[in-house]
Design goal:
Strand content: over 45%
Number of strands: 12
Order of helices and strands: EEEEEEEEEEEEH
Largest sheet: 5 strands, antiparallel
Shape: globular
Helix content: under 10%
Oligomer: single chain
Radius of gyration: 15 Å
Mean pLDDT: 96
Strand order of the largest sheet: 1-9-6-11-4
Structural class: mainly beta
Low-confidence stretches: none
Number of helices: 1
Length: about 130
């Protein structure tokens, strides 16, 4: 069972430009509790490298491109985000890594929960043990 899905947001607009809307519980499958973004990341840097016990996320690369490694403990997929009207929804208990950032990448992250360091799993072997015993 995949613990992620690709999202495509409506691109609205006219000759003046584009507009993309992402509403919680409508376009995003949860109530948005936290928003952050990652930018000015060197292409050799790998971000993330953790799983969350409770938080769900939607990642949207607003500019440039980034590769998202999604690992459910059994299968790994790589998804390239390079369109500002597309994103990826990640369930909880998914190991995520963000890499191959283009120099102009701006990665927007919408979270279902506020920050709680206690829900983070930062050790891959611990993640595998937890996800495989459930």
């Amino acid at each position: 069972m995949k613990r992620y899905s690709l999202l495509k947001f409506d691109e609205l607009g006219d000759s003046r430009g584009k507009l993309v809307v992402a509403e919680g519980l409508k376009d995003v499958p949860f109530d948005i509790k936290r928003i952050f973004y990652i930018y000015d990341t060197k292409d050799e840097v790998i971000r993330g490298q953790h799983a969350n016990r409770n938080s769900k996320f939607v990642l949207i690369n607003l500019q440039g491109s980034v590769s998202i490694v999604v690992d459910d403990g059994y299968n790994k997929d790589v998804v390239v985000l390079d369109k500002p009207h597309e994103g990826i929804f990640l369930e909880s208990m998914v190991w995520k890594e963000m890499k191959d950032f283009s120099s102009d990448s701006i990665l927007l992250v919408l979270s279902s929960e506020g920050f709680d360091s206690g829900e983070y799993i930062r050790d891959y072997e611990e993640f595998l043990n937890e996800v495989r015993k459930s």
